[in-house]
Each structure stands twice: as structure tokens, then as C-alpha cells.
């Protein structure tokens, strides 16, 4: 499992998918922050702004809940992911101009990282946002989903450049 | 449910989330095509190319299976989505330069569209691709997820401009 | 399946649980309305009222979403339930004095009724409401969950007396 | 997370739902006991009694299994619940007169309590009981679901008055 | 999709897994019967017999319920399976000498067959039987799982020789 | 829970199914190896061999992924199973003559064994293999599923004779 050179650890020696063995890894506190960005377009972003809390509130809250629930399903969705005891998930959504910015912080105390949980939450929150607004605009686009930061674990901390 | 002006159909009259009533809609054949694109970076894209089918094959197939399985979970993930009897899901992945292009076609014969199923499959396939390769590179980025095309249903066909 | 006298249709001739065969039943539009009631107590109900939309809004919306998502999981939760293509679920929550009143309307076009879906949604919405408020009061009690009304299907309409 | 005054810990500072961070909490043995009560009515309760173990047995066992399986799905059903490694679930059902009494004991060794698991099991067992008997009587009513007792954790033990 | 010669229909032209398109297939009533057989060994089979209904009853009923619940999860478990509206599942278990014989009949009215649902139910019922008895004997073996019969659909009826 | 004589630990004192209490058990590293064998028949086994990696590769990889995903769903499928933090799952499939041999190794660090996880993975991998090839042959038979080996835990190691 420890490679001096980079390798596909989710593939076995005979190049078959495998759920990599982590029992030797130490239990540490691990966090990951993932980000997604949606382009809403002019009409939708104005409708959300004008509606004040009456429309914006439930749209954002449904997206937050979709994201949190999605984080808990990560190991069911991503075939080689380990089931993880999430200790917290926070989904924050901000509207700015024609965009929605979603930032997810996921935490666990365990033997493997939570980046897939954070990325899955960021994706499902974005998809839920899309679903809540698609009757207004079908051309909403998820423009970006990426890992911003990761702490804990042997491979050291990571921060997107 | 029919609005001359655009509205948030997933919100009720009192602005609470609701699963919109579709029993009056007619059963028609519906398709949706969604696309996602990942930026892999130079090192990873070269490793996949050089490995030939030995690494690329299982990485792509795991992503395809993740996407198809994800499509079937759409109504569990996206809070206001209806459960849908999918009649087919096809996930196609191509590598080109430093990018992976994922295209999903989803079909149903039912009372509501399959765009969320196609978009969910495109997202989960992209997340699975990321997961299979994150031991090689953490800076993979999902650069875009969008609906390319939609047919069937009262609101008419849609094609992204 | 047709009994002149009442019987446990979910038990087989040898008294084993079974998922009763419904392929002979006709496809009709079916609705069910279920109700649940929570006693919140004085302190919690006043905190919700005073907080205005800032606390009450997200508590109620989370409960609504929990209920709708729960309705879709009915066949996974209730062992002998058939999977059902829900065509709509509406969860309405009202606060009145020291109580919260939840009313769920579920609809389908299918071969069997949706009363379990409506009852499951009413239960999960009530449990979610409890969960959102248990840091304020542990003595919240679900005081009642029942079927109010049912239409469609051979056995005729039902209305609770 | 520590409030001198009571607060909605499942809401963030900006009043959005969140899965509260528990990594600082200590791992202790935690138990919760929840209770539900169904009013069966005269006809159904007599049919169950007369049938002896032939009908009563499978009805009760299906409800027990529904409850245990429901406990394991708590984090999927209740949006802000943490996934929990349940160490045991016991569902006990007694018939007495026109009533069925369900008592669930749930245990875990973890960072957060199991009251939602116990309450979810008590609810799903009650719904399953209803489902198994609804061909005999549609007017069964769940008359009460509440937390009887809770031990372990910083907030101290709780016993319903 | 129609092949004069036999082919792997779950693989696409480029040999990637796919969920085959079935919207052109006609909706017919379809049934499948699957069988599994467990070798229990002398000690366990005698304990079950001697215990009469007290042990045998709940062991068999738990296995029946496991099987029925498993049938409903088929499309989640088997990657290329379509979600199917099951119209009935019957799981029958008989003890004979040192063996347990499980027979599952699954039915649907739909565009594709239910053999995977019947086989999955026969497997999960057998695994559940094993789990309920493994504290008595670890050497229980599932000796056979196969499709006995299949009716409905274009490819005609099938009966195992 | 400790029995000098063998007993059905998944049944309570009143012979109802229960999820046995394991909080007193110690946390140890546990492994289980399960095996399944499929008889493919002459035509299918030759088609797989001749196709080289083009057909055999995706068939085997889909079965491997089905098995790994199935292992993670064990506690949802097998009613009395505890949820378990799997630390690794490896599914190996070999074709030999007219047979496919599947061997699964599952590992956890926890309070209860992983034999059901290994057996469930071996079953779902076999069912997935069947599903991928059933358009070529319907008479594939799962001829055997059994526990080969188990280590860790108080009851000591087990190796099938």
C-alpha cells in the first residue's frame, strides 16, 4: 500500500478493482473541504434574489440537506470507497451574481480520508440545487467540483494551488 | 402545475419543498443526455495512456458502473425527484489529451423526465473516476457537468446552445 | 386474494410472511392521507414561535424533506410492501399551541394503495422534527399517527370516523 | 456545541441545517429505550389472540425484524443523524387487551446517542405491525411514540417523567 | 439488441458494461422461479427439528423476510439490472433430512424478466438462514442456487432440464 | 451471550429475532474468506476464453465490483447483522475449464466477525457474473457458496475441513 512511486492503489496486482486494505493505517482526525460552483444565469439568479427568503430559503436548505444526505451515501455510490463514520458535515451555499458557491467541510476520526465524502456532498448539493430550479432554467451548469483542502493521514495535508 | 410564467414547481404555495404531482402527465418515451468533463493533468493522463488496457480498462469500467448504479439511486439522492423506471442507461467515457469526457444517455417511459438521472450518472461516474485515480493525483478537477439534450414531455425538446 | 371474511393477506397458507401477488389488480389512481401529531411542550413551542422564520423555517423544511424522502423508502422499510411509483407526495406541517400537526398526501397510479407510503412519511417527518428539536427538549412525544383517508382500489374509499 | 442555554444544535450560525460536529465528544457506551403503542381495536386483537402462534407469531416477528432493520437505516432517514455503529437492538412486542406495546432497546459505543435509532425502530416496528394487519382493520392507530430512557453521554441520563 | 447468435447483451459495442435499452420490449406478465439448497449437517438439522416451532419458526420466517427484502434490492445489488415493479414474491422453505430447500417465485408486469430478482431472493434467504444458525454450526454450505423456470418475454419460456 | 452449549444467539429468550448485543466483545482484527463456484457450461466458458480480455475483462470486473458493493450492504440485507466498518474487501475470480471460482477476503477491526460480509460478497459477485452472461446461457448454476476460513474473535479461528 505504500508506494515510493505513484500508483493506482484501487487496482490489485492483477489489475482488478479492489477495496484497498486500511487496517494498518492509524486512526486520526481527518478533514476535507470540497467546493462546487453553479452558473445560474441572469433570470434565475434574479428570481432568487428578488424572492428574498421565501424562495431562496427552501431552495438552499433542500440543497444543503441533499448534500449532507449524499455524504452519508458515499460508500454506496463510489464502488471502492470504505464505509466511514462521519463525525460532521457542513454545507455552506452562497449566491453571488449569477453564481452559487457551495463549500462542504467533512470530518471523521478514522483510518482513511474523507475527500470523497466532501466531493460527493458538493456534487449532490449542486445537483439538488439544479433540480429545485430546473423549472425556471434548464441551462444551469455545474462549472466546477474540486477538492480544496485535506488534512490528516499519512500522505500529509493538501491544499489546492 | 402549468405556469404561463416560469416558477419553482418544487415549492408549494406556502414555499415548502414538495414532490410535485405528476399523475395527470402523459406517459411518453423520454431521453436525456448529460455530459461531464474532468481535467486529469499531464501525469495522470500519460500514466493512463501508457498503461494501455491494463490500468485504463478497469478505471473506466469502474466509473461506468458507478455512473449506472448512481442513475438508479437518483430519487434517493435528490430529495424532490420521483422514482423512475429507467429503461436504459449508457455511460461512455473517452480520454483525450489531459481530459476525460463522460457522456450519459438515460431513457424511460414515464410521466416525468430523466434529466436528473442522466446528470446524477454523469456526476457519480466522474466522482468514481476521481476516486480510482486520486492515489496518482489529488488535483483532478470536475470542470463541467451539464444537460446536453432532453426529449419527450410536454415542455418540448431541449438542446444546450 | 379476495376474502369474503377478513384475513391476514400478508401471510401465506402456511402462515409465512409473503409479498401478496397483485398482478391481477387493476391500475387505478390511488391517494392516501396520513396524519401525525407531536406534543412539543411549552418551552419548545414558544422558542419556535419567537424565532420567527429563522429557526422554525429550517426545522419545518427539514421535517418536510425527511418525510418525502421517507415515503420513497417505504418498500425498503416495511418488509411486505410493494415498490410503488409515487406520483406525488405533499407534507404539510402546522404549529398550533404546544402541538405540531403533520398531514401527508401521497398519490400513485398503480395496482396497490399508498397508505403505507403516507404513514411512513408522516412518521419520518415526525421523527425528523423530533431530531431537529431534541437539543431543546427530550420530552417531545409523537402522540398519534393514523390513516385519515384512502381512495382508489377495489376495497373502496376509507375515511377515519 | 456546548450551550449554557438550550439551542437548536442542528442549525448553523446562519440557521441552515447541519450535521453537528461530534469529533470532540468522548466515546462512551450509550443506550436508549423507546416505546410505541398501537390501538388495534376489538376485532383484530381477538383474531390475533384466537389464532394462537399461527398468525400472531409471524405478525410479531415481521414487526420485530422491520424494527431492527429500521434502526440500521436511521442515518439515511433522519437527515441530520450521524451514522452509528449499533452494538445491539432488541425489539419486544406484547399484546394486552386491544393494544400492542412495543419497546426497543438500542445500544452503541460511540460519540453520540442512540435515541433516534431507538425511536426509528419503534416507529418502523409499529408501521410494520400496521401493514401486517391492515387487511383486517384499517383503523389501527399508533397512539404514542416516545423516548423512555437514555444513558451515556455528557448531557447525563434521561428518564421520562 | 436482437441477436441471431448469442451475445453478451450487457456489454456495449466497445465492450463496456451497459444497462441495456428495453423501451422497445412489450409489457407482459413475467414470472421466475429460483431454488437454493443448504446443507445444514446433522447437529443443526436435529436441533431445528427438536425445537419445534419455537426455534424453527423464527429462523425460517427471518429467512423468508430476508429473501423478500432482498428481491426488492436486486437493481441496487446487480449493477446492470433494471429497477422492476415486483407484483409479488413468495419464498417457501422446507426442511428435509440434513437439508433446507428454498424456492422463490417472483412476478412482475413489465418489460424485462424477473430471474435476477428470484435468484437474489433465493441467495439472500439462504444467507439469512446461514446467519441465523451460524452460532450452532459454521460449516453450513449453500450447495446450489439456480433458475428453475421462467415465463413471459420474447425469448420464450425456460425450464431447467 | 456465552453459551457452554451451542445455541441460536440471534433468538431472544422468548424466541424472537434479535440483533445480539456485542458491546462487551473486544475490538480485534478479523478476517473471513468465502468461496463461490459457478458452473458455466461449455458454450459460455469457451466464448469467454476466445473473447480474450474484450469480453472476459468487463464481465469479471463487473462481478468484482458487484461483490465489493454487496459486502458493504450486508447489514441491510441480512436482518440480524451488525453494521461493520470494513477495512478491506478483495474479490478474486478465476476461470478454469467450465467453471468460475470466486474467492473473497473481507477484513475489519471490530467487535464481530466478517463472515457474512465475505459470504454476501461471494454471493453477489456470483449473481452478477450470472447476470452478465445470462444472454448467452440461462443454465449457469451457482454450485457452492461456503466459508473457507475465519480468524479473530473469541470463538477462535475456523478452517473448513
Question: Can you describe this structure?
Answer:
The structure is a homohexamer of 161-residue chains. The first copy, chain A, has 161 residues and is α+β, with helices and mostly antiparallel strands. Chain A starts with 27 loop residues before the first strand and ends with a strand. Chain A has a single domain (28-153), classed as Molybdopterin cofactor biosynthesis C (MoaC) domain (Alpha-Beta Plaits). In chain A, helix 2 runs antiparallel to helix 4 (115-133). Helices cover 33% and strands 30% of the residues of chain A. A five-stranded antiparallel β-sheet of chain A has the order 2-3-1-4-5, with helices on one face. Chain A contains four helices and five strands, in the order E-H-H-H-E-E-H-E-E. Strand 4 (141-151) of chain C pairs antiparallel with strand 4 (141-151) of chain D.
Descriptive tags:
Alpha-Beta Plaits; homohexamer; elongated; five-stranded antiparallel beta sheet; 4 helices; 161 residues; alpha+beta; 30% strand
Summarize model confidence as the mean pLDDT of chain A.
93
Subunit arrangement of the protein: homohexamer
The largest β sheet of chain A comes out as: 5 strands, antiparallel
Low-confidence stretches of chain A: none
Biggest interface and its residues per chain?
Answer: A-B, 61 and 61 residues
Instruction: Classify the helix fraction of chain A into a percent range.
Output: 25-40%
The total count of helices of chain A amounts to: 4
Sheet/helix structural class of chain A? alpha+beta
Number of DSSP-assigned strands of chain A: 5
Amino acid at each position: 500500500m505504500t508506494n515510493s512511486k505513484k500508483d493506482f492503489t484501487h487496482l490489485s496486482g492483477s489489475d482488478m478493482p479492489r477495496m484497498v486494505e486500511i487496517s494498518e493505517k492509524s486512526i486520526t482526525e481527518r478533514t476535507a473541504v470540497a467546493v462546487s460552483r453553479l452558473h445560474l444565469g441572469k433570470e434565475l439568479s434574479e428570481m432568487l434574489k428578488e424572492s428574498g427568503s421565501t424562495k431562496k430559503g427552501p431552495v438552499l436548505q433542500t440543497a444543503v440537506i441533499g448534500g449532507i444526505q449524499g455524504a452519508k451515501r458515499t460508500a454506496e455510490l463510489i464502488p471502492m470507497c470504505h464505509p466511514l463514520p462521519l463525525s460532521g458535515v457542513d454545507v455552506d451555499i452562497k449566491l453571488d451574481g449569477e453564481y452559487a458557491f457551495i463549500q462542504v467541510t467533512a470530518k471523521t476520526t478514522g483510518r482513511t480520508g474523507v475527500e470523497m465524502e466532501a466531493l460527493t456532498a458538493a456534487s449532490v448539493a449542486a445537483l439538488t440545487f439544479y433540480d429545485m430550479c430546473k423549472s425556471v432554467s434548464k441551462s444551469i451548469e455545474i462549472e466546477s467540483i474540486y477538492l480544496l483542502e485535506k488534512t490528516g493521514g499519512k500522505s500529509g495535508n493538501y491544499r489546492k494551488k
